[in-house]
Design goal:
The chain is mainly β. Helices cover 0% and strands 62% of the residues. It has no helices and eleven strands.
């Protein structure tokens, strides 16, 4: 079985920064794509940023230039550095992994979510 543990959320003033982390645990051999989604109250869950095992990254237009996704393949961990935060970034942020190859097979998994609140 694979588990994702997120950390780093919290309350920050507009213009501030936060760094989210998500560590995947289990007998993992490799992870294809690691990404971050977010869901604000009353809105659909949306993709924020994604990164491949080779380090290629993509971002939502709303966070381009402010957020940076990175990963440590040796530790099966993905990070989201969020700078110049805006009140509209307030949401629950979810870690998501696709194509996890582990001793039980292959699967996709979600983290439990971490709250990010940006005050104006």
């Amino acid at each position: 079985q694979v588990q994702l543990v997120e950390s780093g959320g919290g309350l920050v003033q507009a213009g501030g920064s936060l760094r989210l982390s998500c560590a995947a645990s289990g007998s993992i051999f490799s992870i294809n794509i690691m990404d971050w989604y977010r869901q604000a109250p009353g809105k659909q869950r949306e993709l924020v940023a994604a990164i491949t095992g080779g380090g290629s990254a993509n971002y939502a237009a709303s966070v381009m230039g402010r957020f940076t996704i990175s990963r440590d393949n040796a530790k099966n961990t993905v990070f989201l550095q969020m700078n110049s935060l805006k009140p509209e970034d307030t949401a629950v942020y979810y870690c998501h992994v696709l194509g996890v190859v582990y001793d039980g097979g292959v699967g996709n998994y979600w983290g439990q979510g971490t709250q990010v609140t940006v005050s104006s």
